Amino acid sequence: MEALLRWRHPRLGLMPPGQFIGIAEENGLIVPIGNWVLRQACEQAREWQPPHGDPCKVAVNVSAIQFASGDFVEAVSAILAETGLPPACLELEITESVLMQNPEIPGRQISDLRSLGVSIAVDDFGTGYSALGYLQRLPVDYLKIDQSFVKEISGGANSIRLVQAIVTMAHSLGVKVTAEGVETEEQMGVLRRLGCDQVQGFLLGQPMPLAQAIRELNARPERLPLAS
Length: 228
Description:
With 228 residues, this protein is an alpha/beta fold. Helix content is 44%, strand content 15%. The model has no long low-confidence stretch (mean pLDDT 86).
């Protein structure tokens, strides 16, 4: 599961993050908002942990300002302790451009976060620097291939070769690959053949409120019932 932030504005309706995150970063609200989202996601994920079988992992996006704040690692540690969520059930998503601004600083932050037991994903991979070399210095767990690449894999050999190269190089570094924006069975089939580890997108489920997510997950016979 991935926690997605939306603002239910009293006049403008449901607003996606692109319409207000920039403002929150400018006025200094992004850190408390980010910590609130992280706490909410961890609390819910703790409710969802089955007594047996595979754990339910939740992914949370981290803004550049939140990640760069001096006490981010301490905040994550405190939230995990307060909510009781096992660290292995939390994945933090950080964009490639943030990691490349000064790789040494993110490298220390990532090492500290992973020492807590948290996984780290590079989000929207391919939209920024697209240089896999820095992965040798940054101990990340997942690359999330941007949906723009996934959209093109149905249309030609060049796009397939590009995704194949990302998967092969990531695996050679011990990094798993998640494909974003999967919308068709054809895309799913290609990604499976290329050895992609995970997929997400409208083919599997669209963004939805918590109550609907619980209903849909409980309707799947392979899942244990989830708490609301």
